[in-house]
Queue: 4 jobs
Job 1
Amino acid sequence: MTTKNNPSVLLVDDDSVFRERLARALRNRGYEVWTAGGGAEALELARRESPERAVVDLRMEGMGGLAVVAELKRIDPATEVVVLTGYGSIATAVEATKLGATNFLPKPSDADDVLRAFAGPSAEEVGSAPEAPTLARAEWEHINRVLADSSGNISEAARRLGIHRRSLQRKLQRFAPEEHA
């Protein structure tokens, strides 16, 4: 059911359930979709198929999403790339944009979110400055990013953060701070 009017899409995510669900939703909307579970596989597909668009997870085993974005843009500078992440930060979004990403979306995102991201910001979004995260939100994102980099090991994450293990456990027991609290 692929139409000639819809661009081809490469989905790169190591979460197979999320990747296949998003691929199915895009195919149901008439897009030709290729999927890859990691960076090396994605780049092989990109060289062979030359997708017009790519959706790339930021955090993956092996080659990270930012490296994949840079290489996709080197292979074909016209490829539009949207970066997805569960650990978003302003610094990472800026870095992804510098490497050529069209947009940056938090997970979970659905097919409609992805398609809107490729369409670009709305007139309301262009006219308004993005809100800076609260200090509590920035701390929570940083802790979770370090924890993810430590493969979920609390002791290792506490060592990297320079805090006591119990202090880290207390911080993790709290929910993510509300953005507008």
Job 2
Amino acid sequence: MAARGGAVLGSNKICQFKLVLLGDTAVGKSSVVLRFVKGQFQEFQEATIGAAFLTQTVCLDDTTIKFEIWDTAGQERYHSLAPMYYRGAQAAIVVFDITSTDSLTRAKNWVKELQKQANPNIVIALAGNKADLANKRTVEFQEAQDYADENSLLFMETSAKTALNVNEIFMAIAKKLPKSEPQGGAGFAGRNRTGVDLNEPTSQSRMGQCCGRGN
């Protein structure tokens, strides 16, 4: 693991955060995570069953941040499982599809649920995905921005296909998370540092250069 850690991990503080993705089915949650963790996009992404677990490490100033990411299924029949994944999470990305007003309604319901039941200090970001389909949008940027402002959410329009704002939304979350104390410390430095997709157990993250990668 020397190539991934090197001197940086030796001198940096290491913080570990649980992050959950929520949203309606087919809004692109798994595609956003795949783009962030592996730098890949698949036009036809299979629906997540239950949830998938992945990790990715980024560097912010003098801190190495490890995201432990739970990508939850959007189908209604899995809704009852969601609290198991967002319980104890320090961050959440609620994803909607800018071409679907129904998906924004669903996203708002997720935000309400998080505000009532999740960690009171959770950092919530709203992602308007599929920005590459702007010519088909039914949700205006300002509408979503106003809602985000009213609820103290981070908001960006993203595109897993073109990579627009995918890294940026994770980095914006990283900047808002408390980093006064290491989350897990050195004991976690060597554990599961490559991204793992439970749907593809043999796959590993190729984005291992940490601070050397562009945001």
Job 3
Amino acid sequence: MRPVPLSAMLLGAAGLLPFLWGVLTLVSDPIAQVTIRTVGPRFTAPYVLVAYGTIILAFMSGVLWGFATKTEGKAAAAGYALSTLPALWAFFTFGGGHQLAAMNLMIGYAALLLLDWSFQRQGLAPPWWLSLRIPLTAVVLICLAFAAT
């Protein structure tokens, strides 16, 4: 594992806050009630977990697209095609209730980690990429599991 730049680590950790908040509102009714009264129910679980999880999974398609720009020809075409998969998965599997949506997001994030590995293996992602992505993905999967049950 390679050291992750501080800015990437801090921003990645900040990106976990909505996931962690969703779990907190799921396990603590008083916090959920305060959240509902102050900012509305969409910032409580399961809504925040599924909505934010969908947004970030689609965002990660853009990150992979950026990695694909580092190559040319057939390799670039394959990279661009693969980079669209997380967003398409999020779009086509959204809905069906929060439990199914959370399960589908968990599958999407696990598959995304495989794409991350593939892009890094090809030298397209930074050498520290998996050192960042593995712990972030683990936290996301744990948080989504709360909404999936």
Job 4
Amino acid sequence: MGDPREPPEGVPDGGSGNEDEYRSVVFDESFVRAARIQELSASERLGGYSRGVRPRLGFGHIGSLPRQAVALLLLVVMAFAAAVYFGVSSPRRMGVQPTGNQLTVSMAALSPSSAVPAVADPKSPFAALPPGYADGAAGLGIPAGSATAHFTRIEVTRALDTVQHFLVASALNPATLVQGETGAVRALVTPGEQAQYDQSLNSPGDDQHHAATGWLVRFDPGKVALAVDSVKVAGGMKVTEADSATLEIDTDHTLVYALRPAGTDTSAPVSLFSVRRELRFEFDHTDIGAGRARLVDAVLQAGPMACGAPLADHLQPLLAGQSAGTPPAVDPADHTVPAWQVCGVLGPLGAGH
């Protein structure tokens, strides 16, 4: 008898007569998932669909990926989109001032007890200064760079060089002192503080954060001229670490300027004006590499000046022959006057040395 599995008319030529010959056309699961059409379910066909199949969503190769892989890919895309969004719309890009490491400024006017004296020899205005002062950068007292716990000797040396450049640009350069130059100092300020610096120069305010004179020493060129370009300096610097990622450099200098009234010739009387300037700088490794400083604290004592003189924009020296008059009374109940506005009596220059 013939094989009951064979058709009555016999096996076609070349065929085996069993299901093995169809194994080459069996569709595996990945082939079915990749199909562009999908058969409707029984419930969908009963629901009135006019066609027995529907097209599958065309995601190309993504449609054949496992669900876990697709979910992971979506998470990566969402994370990237969020990073781009917050990078573009961050507070710094939107013009909001940075909240950390802002400069804080404190200033005190030093008032003379009598009329400001003129120097005896205008050609040698600093002759009466006590020992310890030097010309310009030579008086800054820059220490040799040495390694700290978390900063190398080279990094400390570079930070000290940046501070030196800042001090020279901000307090010793005649263009800064009486010609309105501000770009040289700005170039040494970190990008995070430049918005504060710009606002301080464009709209100075006595709010402890936006005084132009907290960043640099400058005089009103319509009122004051330098009798000589040199500045006498005494003081020094100290290097410490604020934390493992922050190098801190503190500077404390007394600067003496020889001044005369603006628009006068060399025959005009010359007087001395002194500024004690304590600054605190902070650096991270990036700041050091970029040659920029974060100035976070500035304290100034300057005189001779009148108590109550506005100090946010320019320092206001009293020149030879001028006097301050009686200091105004301070009313502790007057909240219209900032509590940090203080005034002291100017003592003999160099008496503390």
